[in-house]
Amino acid sequence: TYVIAGTELIGGLLFIIGLLTRPAALAFVIFMLFGVHYTSVTAGFIWFRGGSEYAILILVVSVYFLIHGAGPLSVDRKLDREF
Question: How far is CA 66 from CA 7, 14, 78, in A?
Answer without folding.
Answer: 16, 13, 18
